[in-house]
C-alpha cells in the first residue's frame, strides 16, 4: 500500500517506538473541475495513497458544499475515514480527529489563504498548516518578460531589485509572517509543525548561480522572500533537504503536462520556460523526527514553451493511476518519528 498509515511499531532493543506518516500537498485546480472526471480522480488518488494529512490548494467549494467536507463524504463511501477543516482557496484533511482549527490568513480578493488544524495522534500534537498564496504579482513571470496577471509581453527586468520590487506588491510575505507568528505558539506548546502549500513563488534555493542561465531565469540569482523567511524561521523545505542537487533534482511542480487539456487553454506565457517548483512541504525540527522520502506526485511531463516535454531529470515520480485532475504536480513526503 503506497499510503503509509500511522503505524506504531516496536523498534530496537531499547523499546523505541516509531511512527511513520505521510503528508500530501496538492493543488487541485479548482477541485479538478477543469478536467473531465477530475473530482473523482482526486478522491480515487487519496483513497489509494491514504496520506495521513492533506494540504489542498486552489479549491472553490462548488456544488453548494465545502470541498473538503465533500471529499470526506466521498472517501467515506470508499471506506476511508478522514476529518476536514474549512476549505476555500485552500483546505485540510486529517486521518486523526481535529482538536483545534484556525484561519490564520483569510482569503480575500485572491490574495491567498492559510488555515491550520491541530490533531492528536498517540498523544503527540501536530499542527498542520495549508497555504495557497497570492497568485497576483507573480514576479517570476515578469523575469521572463510576461506580466503575471494578464500574460502580456513586457520588458524583462534587468536587476534583482526590480524583480523584488514587483514581488513586494503581493501579499505572500504578509501571509507567511502570520504563519510564522502562529507557528511560534505551536512550537512553544511542544507541537510538531508542518506546512504544505502552493506558494506561487519559486524558492531562493532554486534560483542560484548554477541555474541563473536556465529555465529563462535570464541570468538572475533571486532571494525569493517567502522561502527565505521560512528558512530564517527554522523551517525546512522537505524536497530540497532530501534532494539538495538543484540541477539533477529540480523538482518542478508547475506546469504539469495534462493530456486532457489542450495547451492553447493553458494561458501562461506560451513563449517562455516557466517550469518551477512552487508547491512545497515544510517542517520544523522536532525531537526524533526524520524525513525518510519525498516524491513528486503526478505526471513526469511538463509544459515548455507550449510544448509537452518529458523531464529528463533524476526526480522521483509517483505516477497517477488514471485521470490527472490539475495543472500542478503534488508533493508527497514521508516522515518517521522515533520516541
Would you kindly provide a written description of the structure presented here, covering whatever features stand out?
GO terms for molecular function: endonuclease activity. Residues 24-328 form the Endonuclease/exonuclease/phosphatase domain. InterPro entries: Endo/exonu/phosph_ase_sf, Endo/exonuclease/phosphatase. It comes from Phocaeicola barnesiae. The chain is an alpha+beta fold. The protein has a single domain, classed as Endonuclease/exonuclease/phosphatase (Deoxyribonuclease I, Chain A), CATH 3.60.10. It has helices at 38-49, 67-77, 139-142, 160-167, 172-188, 225-232, 238-242, and strands spanning 7-11, 16-27, 53-57, 83-88, 90-94, 98-105, 112-121, 124-133, 192-198, 236-237, 279-283, 289-297, 301-304, 307-310, 317-318, 330-338. The strands form three sheets. Strands 1, 2, 3, 4, 5, 12, 15 and 16 form an eight-stranded mixed beta sheet that branches. It has a six-stranded mixed beta sheet with strand order 6-7-8-9-11-10. A hairpin with a 4-residue loop joins β1 (7-11) and β2. The two termini are 25 Å apart.
